[in-house]
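Technical note accompanying the year-one report. For the benefit of new consortium partners, we illustrate the data format agreed upon in the data management plan: each record pairs a sequence with a structure-token string. No post-processing was applied to the example shown here.
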Amino acid sequence: MKSFNELAKEIDARLDEVVGGVQRWSGRVFIESVSSLPDYYGVKRWNCDIWLRDDCTVHTLTHELLHGRSAGLAEWAYSTYRAIEEATVGDGTGD
């Protein structure tokens, strides 16, 4: 069975072929319980680590990897334009 880090690297290599752009993901994936991330299946932190719930799907991982490819996204911009960022990333992953 592949680790989430191995799976993430494989998915990200494919995203590079299809989407391109600069990937800011740190290369680290951490798994948390539902109680630790009750409101989200996954989160890409501002340090570019990806945190996933233990009940997430591959779509969530792909969604968070796409966030890592967002062009020049700053915390203030995400706060202001969150709906646009989430809709754009979500539309490609089924989330």
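Partners are asked to follow this layout when depositing records. The chain has a mean pLDDT of 88.
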